Amino acid sequence: MSQPAPTFAISDLAREFGITPRTIRFWEDQGILAPQREGSKRIFTRRDRARLKMALRGKRLGLSLAEIKDLIGMYEGAQDESSQLQQCLRVIAKRRQSLEQQREDIETMLTEISQFEEQCRNILSERGEPVA
User: pTM of the full predicted structure?
Assistant: First the structure.
């Protein structure tokens, strides 16, 4: 006789992933998770757990909700993983490009701040005032 597939309560998933039940309900509201119901109690399956894990990973990568939904949706009943992986690589490359541009922008701003700080210190020093 086969064992029933493991299920998870919302508190189990919240504890495992270090998030709040409210966050899990948000992902449910967005259609990422579809727990079974026993009255008002939510029963999550392994599939829900995997989808939550992917959604949280996408969020950490800075993907938009639409991108997360698209990537998770690709795994639904797809026969060929190659197209999923190609799309995943495209999304990640786009995100990488965005982050690299942000890093470049931050480096530019930090350089400008350093130059402005130096100017302020020089002016204070020329006036004989203490420099913080």
Answer: 0.70
